[in-house]
Amino acid sequence: MKSRFLVPLMHALAGAAISVQAAAASFSGPMETTQWRVDASVFACKLYQQVPLLGQAVFLHRAGEQQRFYLSEINRQLAPGEARLYALTPSWRAFGQHQELGSVTIEEGDEPIRLGWRDSQPLMAQLHEGHQLLLRGDAWYEGESGVDVVIEPIRFRQALGEFQDCLGRLLPVNYDQIRRSSVHFPGGTEEFDDAERERLDNLARYVLADPYVTALVVDGHTDGTGLRAENLELSKRRAEFVVAYLVERGVPEDLVQVRWHGERYPVASNRTVAGRAENRRVTVRVDRFEPDPDAIARAD
Prior knowledge:
This protein is an alpha+beta fold. The protein has two domains: about 10-165, Sandwich (Immunoglobulin-like); about 175-295, CATH 3.30.1330.60. It is about 25% helix and about 30% strand. It is built from seven helices and 15 strands. It has helices at about 115-130, 155-165, 175-180, 195-210, 230-250, 275-280, 295-300, and strands at about 10, 25, 35-40, 45-50, 55-60, 70-75, 80-90, 100-105, 115, 130-135, 145-150, 180-185, 215-220, 255-260, 280-290. It has a six-stranded mixed sheet, covered by helices on one side. A hairpin with a 3-residue loop joins strand 3 and strand 4. It is elongated. InterPro entries: Bact_OuterMem_StrucFunc (IPR050330), MotY_N (IPR041544), OMP_bac (IPR006664), OmpA-like (IPR006665), OmpA-like_sf (IPR036737). This is OmpA family protein.
């Protein structure tokens, strides 16, 4: 998404209060109950605050990805377009400055604001310093001059510590990154280099951590060089080599299905060196089922 946090817009509005717009819809939580919380697992770290009647303000770091920030809406309030973002000195502090952080783009959908790692860092820094964040945008509904969303710094520092502890336990990859994996081989061999080993190591770590993985389907392939019967046998050895490697790292053997196809299914032209390198491969498909949260709740 487009944002302009990092342009030189940050200037102090010394002594000037950021007043609520006339007829604006304002969303913020009460001080006595509003706080930051953390959902932690080896798959993702989520640092979030509920904004009553609106949704959530979320810092999310999935395994294998960079941190991002998003604002979710359970009830649509913000109209697509540009919105302004401010850092405010909380009302319980006697002195301080208000800063305009810049503009963000409001998009349609359940996450009208989505910011990447670089643009999420100023927000985290302002909350860590005890500043409120005020988002001021246009209202989706006619008859209102705008929408104000206030994100509080309450319990942010403590929750940030929990969030950072979670980051240290994240897996190196997530399911989207390993659900379809390919390991490539030099010509005529069934062994691979260190980069391919690391790929399989990460895949094994994910499989061992995710109880919802149901199967690994391993398929061996070769390029079109050589005799067809020999290629079929070579693809078998490559597939079995990968299976043995995964089993050595703890993957249950009964999860694995192994197949081999020789030169039958190329993904690139065998007429070029690069194409043949792409075809010398073993693919690993990781199957899993996504549990129904409602069913889990009923079981509890």
